Every structure is written in C-alpha cells, then in structure tokens.
Amino acid sequence: VAQEMLHKFKKSKGSKGFVAWKIDLSKAYDRLNWDFIREVLWEVGIRGRILELLMQCINSVRYKVILNGELTDSFSPKCGIRQGDPLSPYLFVLCMEKLSHIIQQAVQDKAWKPVQICQSGHFISHLFFADDLILFRKGSVNQAIVMKKCLDDFCSLSGQKVSFEKSMIYVSPNTYPELAQTIATICGSPLTTCLGKYLGVPFIHTRVTKATYQDIIDKVQRRLSSWKSHTLSMAGRLTLLQS
C-alpha cells in the first residue's frame, strides 16, 4: 500500500499536491506513559482484575545498571514498557491505535483530507505498523497544521516524542516548492526526495533494477551463511576459517 501511495504521488497532476510524513518516534517503548496505557486498556474493555494484573506486570519492573564496574541498587522506572517482554508489542499496538482514532476523528470532522489511492479507491490517511508511521494528506498549510496538532495531541497524552529531525516530508512533484518548504517548516521535519525504507523494504522512486533489492539479497545471503556455519562439523569449521 505504501508503494502504491508513492506511485499515486508521482502520477498526480493539477495544482493540488499531496504530502507524506514519515514519522520517527524517539525511544517509542521507553516513553509510554503508564496512566495512558491504563486508559487505553480501559477503553478497549479490559477492566477489573485483569487490568490490575496487566498494570502490575508493567509497573513492577526493576532495573540495575553497572556504574564504574559495579551494580547499583535496583530502581523502578516511571514510564515505558520492557523490550523483549512478549506482552509489550501488544500493549504498544493498542496504544498506537489511539493515534489512529485521533486521525480518524479529524477525517470524520473533515479537518484532515486524506489521499484517495485511485479512482473509486479507498482514502488513506495513515499507515501504521508498530512504530513505523507514515501520514498522508493533501498538500496545504491548513492540512499541515491539522496533522501537526493531531500528532502533538497524541504525544501529550501518551508521553511519546517525535524525532522531527529524523522524520521526513515527501511531497508530490506537482506541489509548489514554496508551499512544500512552508509545510516542512510547520511540521518541523526536512524535505526529502526519497523516503528510504518502510518495514525493511526500500521505496521504489524510479524504474526497478537489479540493484533495487540488492540489500535484501545480501542480508539473506549473510543469514544463510551464518546458518550454514552453525551446522558444519568441527573439521568443516576449521576448513571454513582457513579458506
């Protein structure tokens, strides 16, 4: 879907352009507000004893750090969820749904004008997968203000923080340069001609060539080589090291 949206951008004509904002959340897991998590769980119908058990799993964690080579006394954090905990991804996704609801409400109020992916197709305002976020809307100053406000409201509620300097603004080619720069200034993120990767897959801005997915092929080959070395016998490993 993300790639199709970029294709839509490249083919767009007329005086009204489109904007995509790729969001980078700073330490997304570590910043979640515990009161916000409780509120989200309550809203989705998790209450009573189950809610208290879940919150106990979240706020009972204790950490120790190594300072000058020695372990400090244990201490409790005031926010965030543990990475590596099997419960954490589900909690994070539920919390990110709150941002989705804020955006959907803005769309229903006609304050946020999403992008129609094709004629008679769906209107797309955002794509979320965990902390990989891309926001879409029509290119105008008012739309930029609305989008920034929705994001600021969510961050205020959840404790999240956007790394604006690492986030990127991509505009369709038919957007006036002056307007594009104004939108980037309002959002606080730099303009780009390439959004990089989404979910590990590079966005295709030009014709597909052999080099387009070479990084993925190299990564798979490195992983296969690693697996192969683990299954070798001791004699085989010695041969591999000497080769």
TrEMBL record:
Residues 1-191 form the Reverse transcriptase domain. Pfam families: RVT_1. Signal peptide: none annotated. This is Reverse transcriptase domain-containing protein.
